[in-house]
Amino acid sequence: xxxxxxxxxxxxxxxxxxxxxxxxxxxxxxxxxxxxxxxxxxxxxxxxxxxxxxxxxxxxxxxxxxxxxxxxxxxxxxxxxxxxxxxxxxxxxxxxxxxxxxxx
Length: 104
What we know:
Blueprint: H1 2-20, H2 29-62, H3 68-103
Helix pairs in contact: 2-3
């Protein structure tokens, strides 16, 4: 038991030293920042790709010239892209909610 107490004291001194130099000791702030940046970038990319797919689907819709197969394919492209946009928005909100809860 005494050895565990000594290790805890040394760990506390090390943490105080890290904090004195402006570092973050044990709160995970840097890791949380990296996770936030990576997740926001990925969510942005998914949203951007979904918006591009909506535009492509709209162009396919306009250029289908009454072809039933082309019309259905364009409509499906737009539908799936809009589902992607909704999922990107929901995931962004969820990630921001979790990060706010963890950091406070």
